[in-house]
Write a structure and sequence with these properties.
alpha/beta, 2 domains, globular, 54% helix, Rossmann fold, two-stranded antiparallel ribbon
Length: 260
């Protein structure tokens, strides 16, 4: 567990920025949504999100810029003409079955601890903002920042509306949000697993590295940053606790009905 803990309430807003993929969720959020889209026969959305997942994976493992750009272009071409709200609707539909069971309990609890202390908690990801917004809403967080796909007349145009929130762009988005809210970045927090988020982690006064890749792990050691290493076993244990609680509630309700 991390050596530091969320700070107390401040006179100025305090923001905790959480990366999504492999930080809040085990794996890539777009991949989970794409798999659900495939199961439900949303072929166009499936292809779009599959390419979106590959984009994020290329970034995570350090694929070259040319390959990354090529994949972006293919994903955008598939997005063209889809209803603008399709990603939001699909993510909402599959949150319980495909996403909630893959949340890291430890980082979710950290996010909630920030909320209890009066901090704002924002998800920040290179994935589509539609996905980030749904996850943030379902978890009761403040909001989500992500890559925006351009739309016109209710349809996606196959273009980005602004930059992909990756690397220095993600840090710039965090800086802009902090400025708009009047937050002091020295008081803010950031959580991430990827070396690509070093600009974000260095931007704030408090950072915690979660399940870091090799490069970020080395960087964290060199800079004495706290590191959380999580196991899928914690997710399985959390799921079992939910199932036990659900069975207990159902048993209680059945008992009450029989008594009535």
């Amino acid at each position: 567990m991390p050596a530091s803990h969320p700070a107390q309430v401040s006179a100025r807003p305090i923001i905790a920025f959480f990366d999504v993929d492999n930080t809040l969720i085990h794996g890539a959020s777009a991949f989970h949504v794409s798999r659900a889209a495939w199961k439900r026969g949303h072929v166009g959305v499936r292809d779009l999100l599959t390419f979106g997942w590959h984009q994020l994976r290329f970034v995570t493992v350090g694929e070259n810029v040319k390959h990354f750009a090529s994949t972006q272009e293919r994903a955008l071409a598939l997005a063209k003409g889809l209803p603008a709200d399709e990603l939001t609707n699909l993510t909402d539909d599959v949150y319980e079955s495909e996403i909630a069971s893959r949340l890291w309990p430890e980082t979710v609890e950290l996010a909630r601890e920030h909320l209890r202390k009066g901090h704002e908690v924002w998800l920040i990801t290179a994935a589509p903002v539609d996905i980030a917004a749904v996850i943030a809403r379902r978890l009761g967080l403040t909001g989500g920042l992500g890559t925006i796909l351009r739309s016109h007349d209710g349809k996606l145009t196959g273009e980005f509306d602004g930059p992909v929130l990756h690397g220095v762009r993600k840090a710039a988005a965090a800086r802009e949000l902090a400025s708009s809210l009047g937050a002091d970045l020295a008081d803010c927090w950031a959580y991430s697993d990827s070396r690509n988020d070093i600009p974000l982690l260095e931007l704030v006064g408090h950072r915690i590295v979660v399940n870091p890749d090799a490069a970020l792990s080395a960087y964290a050691r060199a800079h004495d940053w706290p590191v959380m290493r999580l196991s899928p076993a914690s997710i399985r244990a959390a799921v079992r606790r939910v199932h036990r609680k659900t069975r207990s509630v159902r048993t209680s309700e059945n008992t009450k009905r029989q008594a009535g």
